[in-house]
User: What shape does this take?
Amino acid sequence: MTATDIKATRRDAAEHGAAVAQARRVLRHAGFYTFICLLIAFFALPLLWLLAAPFDSAPGVTVSLPDFTLRNFQVLADNPYALRSLGNSVILAGGTGALTLLFSALAAYALSRVKLPGRDMLLYVLLLLSSIVTGTAAMVPLFNLAFELHLIDSQLGVILILTGGMLPSAIFILKDFMDGTPVSYEESARVFGASPLQIVRHIVVPLVRPGLATIAVWSVAQVWGNFLVPFLLLRSPEKSPAAVVMYTFYTEGGQPNLALISTYSLLYSLPVVLMFLFVSSRYGFRFHGGIKR
Amino acid sequence: MPATSSPELEAGTPAKSEDVERRPEAPGAPSNRVQAGGDAAGLGRARATAFIVPAMLLIAAFLLFPAIWTIYLGLTDYRLTGLAAANPQFVGLDNLQNALSDDRFGNSMWLTVEYVIGSAVIGQVLLGFAVAWVMRERRGALRRLVESLLLLAWVLPGSVVAFLWIALLDRDSGTLNALLQTPGTGWLLEYPMASIIVFNIWRGAAFSMMLYAAAIGNVPPSHLETARLAGASTWQQLRDVVIPRIKGHILTNLLLISLWTFNDFTPFMLTAGGPDDKTEIMPVFIYKLALNSGELGFGAAISVLMLLFNLIIALFYVRMLRSRKDDAA
Assistant: This one.
């Protein structure tokens, strides 16, 4: 074999290698885009109905381009339960959010700043307890408890039970925030004679405001979608939140009122979607476990 | 909130005894020192206790007490109506024994295992990881679109999502039948378990995607680069570089989503346990048993088993958090 032959062979091999690499790259691209297209189709398909049906003059179950109208929203406004149940959702989510925020902030601050005996053990037990006792595992005693305390069919009962369930996680998240804020402001305010409660109100609260916002958004989002607890405890449709009332829209009578359900779903979803957009623009939505479970 | 820390990963780790805890300081931020034993605002023990009491009362009433009461109820023949409602008798471990020999319980247990393993352990983990992996070097519109779609499925209320899937899978005019040209296929009736598994993958993949995206982002790019230059295939890169590095995250992810899926009641809105108990996973089984049939004691006995299982997962999880915190220290 002459030197030129060897060169030619080498060049062929190199070209062959380049061709293989090229083919592999094309394949990888094709694979990637196939995967992405399937993925987008899988996730978008159920959502399309939510976008199209509320504006369709004759909404069906099938996704189709809407024959545009806003009349369905009139149907929603005329329904006696629809708007009221959204109001109930606001009451439940707002009440739970406010109580969770207040009690968890007080507890987290005290736990962060004062070394109480048994604090570490307490935190450990709380973390365990909050992941073990869930609405589904404890539905029998929760129902019983509400019955004994005359909290069946009471929105306050739902608010208290949901708050109790959310407090441990809220305390953890907030304590983490408070541990991360400097104590020097508090110390200097104290030097100038501010009372502990003044310090908490005027210094600590503004410092941990992002943490408080996180807890508020998180707790409201949790309650907004919660089905089981109000479903167990509330008997009258006038008091039930959107999650429960919506479920009754399509089991009664067999023929679901699609004009109503579609607009209702959209209105009911909007607040959490807006909150999600707010959170993601603010914090980049890297909450991991925090925001929902 | 620190951008990359999840509350679960930080929570529940006892502060190191008396010494001063130091946290990494952000540039320009004031000193971030917190003294574990200090009391900067002069709160004092009495006032600190008063701050904690309301939260603890609610937790004791609505978490601790129900847990204990579940255990007690599980040992009685308490019923919603009838003789046993007025005067429940202590029956010891009979309920548990009955449960374990009851076909309905066995059926429900098996369905729950299928549901958790199929939708969470396999479905959400694989899909979430796959999305995080193929999107790892992408920025821009495509990535935002994919992430937003997954997150939307995750944040929408369960009732809405359940109806979207009922519409999608409808026998007469569902979108899926129209697309696949399979008119008249009643997916929820013919393939009920598969339907709720796919539904839960759809609903929950976002969490795994976010967790794995953060984990993969923490793998040093130079390691992957080195492996690539050495001629490692994608599979080899995953096996030898990525997975060993994110083992902890995989375990965290597995524990959390198993716990959540095990306690998930949403499939009830899709199938109500039917047809013929074919989707009667544990939470739905307890609901039907205790609050529909009124067998509160029997239902509570099964709840105790659920609490036990939750405890096992949570203990693993908390232990892992502690050991990771110790490794970091």
Observations:
- Chain B touches chain A through 119 residues (CB under 8 Å).
- Residues 1-37 of chain B have pLDDT under 50 and may be disordered.
